[in-house]
Amino acid sequence: MKIATYNVNGVNGRLPVLLRWLEQRQPEIVCLQELKAPDERFPIDAIRRAGYDAIWHGQPRWNGVAILSRIGEIHETRRRLPGEGEDAQSRYLEAAVNGVLIAGLYLPNGNPRPGPKFDYKMLWFERLIAHARELLDSGLPVILAGDFNVMPTERDVYKPERWVDDALFAPEAREAWFRLVGQGWTDAVRHLHPDETVYTFWKYFRNAFVRNAGLRIDHFLLSPGLVDRLVRAEVDLEPRGWDKTSDHAPAWIELAAG
């Protein structure tokens, strides 16, 4: 079973890219982030024609997350983190699909730092850590997948000295990441590629993608029961080079049958 995460940076504006990638790679489950569309403008008809069902949590202009499946029903279990109000940003969506609980998330960017946006990032991170603990305690097979907006180590960022003041590389954000992982989660990419340079995001300017001046901010965290089923963890670089594409590349993992 192939499970992917993809920050599409606008699901309608990048729809041809998304559909082309879905047809090419055909993942069974996909977590999307940064839809930048209200619920009524999510392109469900096109998604269904591509062979996928979907649930989504949209928001006008910003944020937004979705879960797609082509292997069975999507049983939604949650669409915001505990502790968030009714006016929460659309950043979290959780569902059971084919025997696995999928938590698709878009953690706040947090820039500029310091400031209210960074404070919101860290509060959101704390709510995620608390809920993730509950998910682990449930004993269910769980995957946290999405754009975490954090580079855990210097290996995860091109020229880390240039990012010391950025919210994505802030000591507070990295410390929160390691507290989260330290609960018992496994970073799927680093588990299979411990020493490799792996990036999932490249800025649009200064020829960053061609120079491979990137960041690894899109992650999969696996609960203990899924680690032995992990077969592959990869990043699809090709779509990042397509016309009118996202600044992220799709990342995916493959699980053996349970």
TrEMBL record:
Q: Which residues form the Endonuclease/exonuclease/phosphatase domain?
A: 4-248
| Cofactor, how bound (note) | Probably binds two magnesium or manganese ions per subunit.
Q: Which residues bind Mg(2+)?
A: N7, E34, D147, N149, D247, H248
BP GO terms, sorted:
DNA repair
Q: Where are the active-site residues found?
A: Y106, D147 (proton donor/acceptor), H248 (proton acceptor)
Q: What class of enzyme is it?
A: hydrolase
Residue(s) at site: Important for catalytic activity: D218
Q: Which parts of the sequence are marked as the site Interaction with DNA substrate?
A: H248
Stored Gene3D superfamilies: Endonuclease/exonuclease/phosphatase (3.60.10.10)
Entry's Gene Ontology molecular function annotations: DNA binding; double-stranded DNA 3'-5' DNA exonuclease activity; endonuclease activity; metal ion binding
Tagged with keyword Cell membrane: no
Q: Where is this site: Transition state stabilizer?
A: N149
What this protein needs as a cofactor is: Mn(2+); Mg(2+)
Keywords tagged on the record: Hydrolase, Magnesium, Manganese, Metal-binding
Database matches in CDD domains? ExoIII-like_AP-endo (cd09086)
Q: Mind telling me which PANTHER family this protein's record contains?
A: EXODEOXYRIBONUCLEASE III (PTHR43250)
Q: Which family does it belong to?
A: Belongs to the DNA repair enzymes AP/ExoA family.
Protein name per the record: Exodeoxyribonuclease III
Write the gene name. Answer: xth
